[in-house]
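thought: user wants a sequence for this fold. calling inverse folding tool.
action: design(structure=
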């Protein structure tokens, strides 16, 4: 009897915390009704060569497919968010891709961690889309037909 009560209490606690988290982490899918291809590019590396590679892949996809026929979303978390800081040397490239319909998501959990550890919240490119959980956003996109690519 006691085990059943403990299991019930644990289940209630899990449901209480799981429901808001699941609904709060994603942003709506891109409005690309004619997209035949949907790609999410994972950026979790602070290496500038990886940043350049992700930008190159996004650019090449736009050239290979009509921009209306491809939905591209770059999800940056962990050290990968450096690409989206206002002082990034690749800021113009990022903003150019955004203007062409590529969405760049930045993980708020990573920003919170940096702020907690350094005492200062880094500023990021205003056109970047904040998401609560970067990996959660990737999972959401994958569950909605996006192909996950980690260049």
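)
observation: tool returned 151 residues.
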């Amino acid at each position: 009897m006691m085990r059943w009560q403990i299991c019930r209490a644990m289940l209630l606690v899990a449901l209480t915390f799981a429901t808001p988290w699941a609904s709060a982490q994603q942003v709506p899918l891109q409005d690309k009704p004619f997209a035949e291809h949907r790609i999410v590019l994972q950026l979790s590396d602070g290496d500038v060569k990886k940043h350049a590679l992700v930008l190159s892949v996004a650019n090449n996809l736009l050239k290979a497919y009509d921009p209306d026929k491809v939905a591209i979303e770059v999800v940056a978390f962990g050290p990968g968010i450096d690409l989206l800081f206002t002082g990034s040397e690749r800021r113009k490239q990022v903003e150019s891709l955004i203007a062409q319909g590529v969405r760049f998501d930045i993980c708020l959990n990573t920003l919170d961690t940096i702020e907690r550890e350094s005492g200062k919240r880094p500023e990021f490119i205003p056109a970047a889309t904040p998401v609560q959980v970067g990996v959660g956003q990737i999972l959401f996109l994958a569950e909605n037909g996006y192909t996950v690519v980690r260049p």
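thought: summarizing for user.
answer: Here is the designed sequence. Residues 37-149 form a domain with the Hypothetical Protein Ychn; Chain: A, fold (CATH 3.40.1260.10).
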